[in-house]
Every structure is written in structure tokens, then in C-alpha cells.
Structure of Bicyclomycin resistance protein:
Amino acid sequence: MASSAAGDATPSSADGTWRGPGFSEFVGLVALMMGLTAVTIDSFLPAFPAIQRDFAVADPNRLQLLIYVYMLGFGIAQLAYGPVSDGIGRRPALIAGIAIYLAGSVLAMLAPSFDILLLARAVQGVGGAAGRVLAVAIVRDRYDGRDMARVMSFCMMVFLIVPILAPSMGGALLLAGSWHLIFAAMLVLALVNLAWFGWRMPETLHPAFRRPLDARAVGGGIALTLTTRTSFGYATALGLLTGCIMGYVGSAQAVFDTGLYQLGPLFPVAFALIAGAMGVATLINARLVRRLGMRRLAHAGTLGLWVTTCLQLAVMLALGGKPPLALLILTLACCQFLLSFAMPNFNALAMEPLAAIAGTASSFIGFYTTLLAAFCGLLVGQSFDGTVIPLAVGYCALSSACLGVVLWTERGRLFGVGAVVPPAR
């Protein structure tokens, strides 16, 4: 169904030719669909002190709930978007999701209390889930194998530029006015996404792969995902590594801004330096994946991350959890660099065997990995004690678990070029 070149695989007109955007525009549009979540999370971090002051939130760790309730809505809603899009198509499902996101953004702008703001964030998560699920499904509709991994890497590269810029954007909006302007910016970005997608992206779901909207079909798709060893294993590994990122994002404001290092307006700079390492790694991955393959790069990144997190934990313990700022930024940037070789390839490896149920599979994998990541990230973030030791412990524990899961998935064989993994456990 898919091909290595954009525009050859999925018919979008009666004569079977592709009428959608070219490769670069396709990557940009899909990256925007994915990037809306990064903007929704990361641009919001500098606003924590203002929100704490406006709503008289006594416990600063409670502000992290603004991230995790979003992730909860984001994770649960993903169960719906995939099966729905497998039945009615990608376009109407995404448009519905953006409409929900817009409603959540308006509610957040008008929130009279912290509890209502939490509710608004959950609604945003429910709507934002559409972009995550359908971006992956649309890529899977159009590409397979190493070409799919290459497209996902480019999408991730653009997507990872957002965390570099988003906190600075949020800080600039705070200088111009209140934190409500950040939600206004989210609203505008979602409208741009809706207009661009509606204008340029045709339906990518091949008619032959439409599935009925019934519980048996959805359950069968989920069961197939769970019993496909490659898909379940790499989805679990992806969730664990995403948990590292969520733990870091949840802790970042307390560590860099108002807590340990008191950076204040310089917080976005530290955040950008660490996020920038992810963007560089993803670009390198996109250039190498067609030549070296997904497994080699993913396994190298996983092993490197495990070694680095073990060393990081030892150093942080030796320094009492309060290292020099430059050392912390360096070690975290190294961790983010290495996990960025694994994550896009984990996602592609998990989806590769599931072309016939791409929407349902992307939906369930997104649900599973998001909730796993949010749970792990919440444990790490809520453990903040004024030092970086909880963050270092979280990275080390999650990367160790990830390595174990990859070994289980590959039956103990790493770096297997073209390794064939049996489709069921």
C-alpha cells in the first residue's frame, strides 16, 4: 500500500493518484499536528508562578497537575480516535478533535479557578489526542518500513524544535500580558492547523482498509496489537522513554526556574539547550535510518542512554543532588540526545506490522504509551525534593526497564539487521 516516495501509494482521487502535499509540506503538516501537544505543554511552563499567584495555589508541586491532567485526557481519548478514523476516515476525525481542543482553550482563557483550569486542560488533552493518533496513522497510510521511519524522524525533528521555542514564546507572552495570552496563542495555532489540514490534506485511508465501527472490530485490532510481540514490546519501550521526558518536563520549572537554580527569565534558555540536543539527534537519525535501519539506531540509542543515565545518577549522588548548572544541562542534553535515536524508531517498529489496522493500532499504542509515560513522569515529578536526585533516579530506572523490554522483544538479540520477530507472543 505504501511506497518509498511521496505521492505514489494512497489514492486520494478517482484515478488513484495522490493529490496531497509533497514530501516537505507533508512532513511540515504532520509535524504541526504532533507539535500542538508540545506547544500546549511547554509554552505553559513559564506561567506556573503567575498561575500559582493568581489562584493562591499553596503547594507548588500541585502546578504539575496542569501537565498531567492534560496527559490523562490526551491518553484516554486516543482510544477513540483510531477506531473512529478507521471507520469514517482521518479527515473528519481530526477536524472533530481540533474542535474539542479549541473549546478547551477557550475554557482555559476564561477559567475562574484552578480547578476549572485543570478541567480545561483535560478537555484540551482530549482534543489534542487527535493530532497524535492521526499523524501516526496518516504517515502509516502513506509509507512503510525505513521510509516510514525516515518520515517520522523528520516529523519528530520539526516537532522537537517546538520545545526549544515554546517556553520562550510563553515567556514573551507573559511580558506582553497575562498567562491567558498563552492560551490565546494555542487557540490561534490550532486554527492554523485546522485550516492547513482542511485545505491541503486529502483523505489518506485507503477504502480497502476501512473497518466497521463496532466493538468486535476494535477489540480485535487491540488484541492484534497486544499479541504482536514487536508492536507491544516497542510500544512499551516508547512509553518508558517518554516517561523520562515527562519526568523532566514536570520537574523542569521547579529545578531551573523557581526552585534549585532560580534562573527566572533565563529558564527558557536552559530548557532550549536541552531540547536542542533532541532536535540534532532526530535530524541525524533521519539521515541514517535508511542506510543503517531502525533496529541498529534504536538499540544503539537505548544502550547509550542506559550507560549515560547510570553515570549521571552516580555523579548526582556524589554531588548531593545539587550539581553545577552547566554539568546538569550537559548530562540531561546527552540523555535527550540518545533517547531521540530510539523513540522515533520505536514508534515506527511498533506500527510496522499493523498496516491493516493503522488507525486502531496508533490509537491503542498512543493510549498505552501516553498513560505509561504520564504515570512514570508523575512519579518522578512529584518526587522533587529540592535536588535533582529523583530526576536522575527516574532516568536510570526507566532506561534500565526500557533496555530490558527491548531485549525481551528481540529475544535477546540486539542490532539484528533485518531481524524477523514472530508476530505473536
